[in-house]
Structures
1.
Amino acid sequence: MKTVCTTCPYCGVGCGVIASSDGTIKGDPDHPANFGRLCSKGSALGETIGLEGRLLAPKVLGHDASWDNALDLVATKFSKAIRDYGPDSVAFYGSGQLLTEDYYVANKLMKGYFGSANIDTNSRLCMASSVAGHKRAFGTDTVPGTYEDLEQADLIVLVGSNLAWCHPVLFQRIAAAKAARPNMRVINIDPRITATSDLADLHLQVRADSDVALFNGLLAHLADAGKCDDDYVTRHVNGYTQALDAARQSNASDTGLSDAELQQFYAMWAATEKVVTVYSQGVNQSTSGTDKVNAIINCHLATGRIGKPGMGPFSATGQPNAMGGREVGGLANMLAAHLDIENPDHRDALQAAWNSPTMCTTAGLKAVDLFQACANGQIKALWVMSTNPAVSLPDADGVAEAIRNVPFTVVSDIMARTDTGDLADVLLPAAGWGEKNGTVTNSERRVSRQRAFLPAPGQARPDWQIISGVAQRMGFDGFDYESPEEIFKEYAALTALSQKFAKDLDLTDLADADYDGLGPVQWPVGGTDRFFANGGFFHADGKAKMLPLAAPALETGKFRLNTGRIRDQWHTMTRTGKSAKLGAHLAEPYVEMHPADAATLGVSAAELVRLDQKGIFRVLISENIAAGTLFAPLHWTRQTSSAGTVNSAVNVGTDPFSGQPALKSADVSAEKFGAGWYGFAVSAVPMTPSRPYHAIAKTQTGWQAECAGVKTPTDWELEARNITGMQSGPAATLYDISTGQTRVAIIDDNKIAALFFASPDPVVVARQHAANLIGQEVSSLSALAGRAAADQPDPGPTVCACFQVGANTLRDAIIAGANSVDTLGAKTCAGTNCGSCKPELAAMISQFKLPVAAE
Ligand SMILES: Nc1nc2c(c(=O)[nH]1)N[C@H]1C(S)=C(S)[C@@H](COP(=O)(O)OP(=O)(O)OC[C@H]3O[C@@H](n4cnc5c(=O)[nH]c(N)nc54)[C@H](O)[C@@H]3O)O[C@H]1N2
Ligand SMILES: Nc1nc2c(c(=O)[nH]1)N[C@H]1C(S)=C(S)[C@@H](COP(=O)(O)OP(=O)(O)OC[C@H]3O[C@@H](n4cnc5c(=O)[nH]c(N)nc54)[C@H](O)[C@@H]3O)O[C@H]1N2
Ligand code: SF4
Ligand SMILES: [Mo]
């Protein structure tokens, strides 16, 4: 058995993991990102490393091919496109989930050997506004602070960040710090009330995209209250007066908050020296995203609250290597080592270091434009790596069409079937997490090793090796790498250029370090932990810039659709979807809707809603969302649902500075989906229900499917067989003529192989219990009751993923007196492993706690 210290492949917290080849996963107690903690996704990594669904050999036009044939073909097609149509006729689309070494090699090939910058990444959908905001304010893309600041702060302001679900270990660090120092305060600014709001002393339910107005209002208040640091501003900041003048033009009532709420927020911020403002996609994914970033940074610059312990603006990165990608110049408008593409000296220096034949001279196409160029015929050869754009880009169906329109498309992925892979001419099998070596950089600039503990399956190869193989076949020197270590050392040495041009990034000390034994290390290596406490910005005069910002006009449309993440799934679910534990939390695509809107549309709880004629989602009626707005998760795809790909209904503009799409604000129509029947099925085998509405998920015993259709089937047994994939074996059907409810059990070898429940209304059945019956002996037909027997209480929908504790179990324990998260944990185990469900436990306690009798 092999055991290694490695890094979690999901979010940008970058937790250290101790992983073994038998699938055991533990948090690394010595890693400074998590000190042993893991969230539900990290804890379930062992369930996701199986080979089910993996791409194990190269495929050309759907047929297995040898590596030689596949790589020759890719090299020939790219060479020919460049020869016939020029370097800008080819494009790469990469990912913040590539390792630094993969990312570096792809950029070197594209920018230094093809001579085009048409290489962009999903970081355009994620961090681009933060990058643009940092560059405007600081002169370079620097995150000034560290995770410790979040523990040392007296006030944490979360803006457009559902930290409890998206950066759970950081959230837990804050929660622990707050428990230890009860005077610490947390403010959450989000148009939705979320699990994160549970920790907040103040939740500001702002109008969407009113963040610039809010922070402009704060800046004016800080000036009026005499809280600006004149000395810091004079010595280190340009643009104060203009920024303040512009801020005074803004109208804080745009936020929709009451005066009392605004004054409370301003007063708390003004009164607290140690304040950290953490922001994420509610800020970045907006047509005013870059301005939002600068509106936040303006307030920190004006007060000098930056770069000192417990204070500063903090952009939480999404993906495990969002930060590393930025360091190696992963975006179409950047060069490696934080060098600028517009600067000829930077370009020349990089070309000299690479000793490369050519160099791109201008920025390339940004993600949305890149796929537009695919649609209009400019792109003749496209290579997509470690991302699923046919799901994750806005106008996902248009993007799929655009990819189809490219004469030659290569997709490198670990999975045989993804919505993007299905469109490829060539599929290349990549080695996945646990099978390859390299480095990633987390949100606090800490470089950590990923280490292999499993053999690469089938013919899978690490991405750097695949890219290098094509480069060599195209006749380029400079790609004869034998290992990721060689690549890392070349890149680390190259960051000397960043120093030469007075930039921030310096990894040169790592160029001679022991790569195998490299522990987590923060940059600047051996320097200070934080930037800018005493100025030292990276604009030519060494000063920072405050920006004069106008708040955008806020539109009122039909419904405003906000999108984002849920606790237990990662993006397009290609990995987390393999875990039954993770699937049990929220198992189908849903749309959150205010009760008033539900009443207007005539939809009741658990019915279905159609968005923009394209998507169909289960309605979740909730007071946590404002009337006129909707929220839907981004995770479901055409593989896991019939119509749950939310980006099919998301058609949005981009930020003018960063090119980041406004994924939080699609204008959509919504109507009730008139289902004639609803169904729920569990089966021992994977299902492809192909019904107008369906969504599948993994269970402990096989698979489950939610479905619905318009026309009620006449033969329910046939319907059950078609949906569950169980064509043979005896079936028992129960039909209740008074309610129209139907139950079908299909038996194989005297064991229950599939169960199907249908009803004219949303199906009420103990789903977890039904799933657990699969594979059981058929002692009686009581299985068809669809509810648990008295001696086997139904735990209800899963809340705690680690211990599979359901909502009913928790409700009963709360009613029996468990009235704190800790006692509930002691009684049921819920929340005692990763702790990701603690906000939900707290919410349930306030819902079900019996009122204490007056004494
Ligand atoms: N479980 C899980 N965790 C993840 C991921 C995942 O897929 N699953 N993905 C990772 C990645 S790549 C990323 S980028 C991060 C994202 O992490 P987050 O940004 O925290 O997550 P989101 O759910 O995208 O959006 C955050 C919040 O922005 C709010 N919001 C929307 N519009 C506005 C607005 O105008 N103003 C304000 N103030 N708020 C607004 C939304 O209501 C939402 O609650 O998560 C990372 N972590
Ligand atoms: N509506 C809406 N859309 C969004 C967002 C939103 O908030 N709302 N958020 C956006 C953001 S912030 C992000 S980051 C994107 C994420 O969106 P994507 O990047 O498209 O989503 P993933 O599912 O993470 O895709 C990663 C792919 O890489 C594959 N893979 C895993 N490991 C490896 C490997 O080692 N090598 C290779 N070659 N492949 C691998 C996986 O199987 C998967 O197919 O979504 C964006 N889209
Ligand atoms: S918080 Fe969770 S998903 Fe993020 S790195 Fe840590 S364990 Fe992984
Ligand atoms: Mo992201």
2.
Amino acid sequence: MEMHHGHKTRMNLIRLSKSSVGNEEIRAVTQVLREGYLGMGEQVKQFEINLEKFFGRKVLCVSTGTSALQLALQACGIGSGDEVIVPSLTYIASFQAISATGAKPVACDVDASSLIIDSNDVEKRITKKTRAIMPVHYSGGVGELEKIYSIAKKYKLRVIEDAAHAFGTIHKNQLVGSFGDIVCFSFDGIKNITSGEGGCVVSNDKKLMKVIEDLRLLGVENDSANRYKNIRSWSFDVKHLGWRYHMSNIMASIGMVQLKKFEKLSQKRQALAKRYDDKLRGIGNVLPLSRDYDFVVPHIYVIILSKKINRSLLMTCLLKLGIQTGIHYYPNHLLTLFKSAYKLKNTEDIHQRILTLPLHPEMKLKDIDYICSQLESIVRN
Ligand SMILES: *Cc1c(COP(=O)(O)O)cnc(C)c1O
């Protein structure tokens, strides 16, 4: 076995991210399987009720975070000929959700230190065709969200928050999702809570939510109410293009257990991130994002490397030491499909220097200590 910096190569890989599910989730799924109503039914309704208690607002569950974004946009009447402003530094899902409606995603820059949407750049990207802004709550932080809302108010735009990273984050004493125009979450396997796959839309806009309720079930009017009671609709009307984007009982049963455990899951994520901050502060050449983990529930833990660090070499070294790392994200405006005619200075500089370190609730504080000491000895040399 190879030796590195005086430590033995670890036998167990510390994964970048990992679902954290256990016996309770297994029991919940098993019960749904035994009952024999696997699709959208009572469990989905119950999960929505539980989420509504959590957020204090109307919630609709859907198949993925991506479909939540797409349906939110479509329900706003956004489509072909419209533009939606979105930070380039996001998961491809944000961009594809916009494209799926026929609208054009218009990439904007992020703030160089927080990696959250830059409101000054947002204002530069507004045209006659702009219909909405989609801020992305990168790594769980929301930044100066009120600035986005004031721009939206000034130009009469909708705001669809991509809160896929921010389930549980508190912003100025308010839970993300409990305020704002439309807020979309993801429950994919590695997010702050999971339902296997899945997502939800949260909003106070009753008319919009009614539209989404139908759109997620192929546009079949009022089908949700029947499905909640395990009844199928046989005669109905359809007025809009719809999709098969509902959540299943199997997914909801996992989600409900995760929501019950959320206090523990979120505290663990926060404790791990705080430990990273403590250990990395003072190490030259690496800069943690500045986030207050008493309020932010981090989905990922990202550091910014100084220019002289060779990132791919660092990633290879860490992997040999049993530490899996990642890059969130390659900028969307540099992809063939979304190529922009203009440059985004901060995004183009920073994306080459960001590195995501392992973060998931099954990690231990001593894993963080190990990662940080290995990282320190590599970036020193
Ligand atoms: C995960 C994620 C999504 C999409 O969620 P899915 O449930 O995977 O479809 C959207 N935006 C961001 C920033 C994400 O991380």
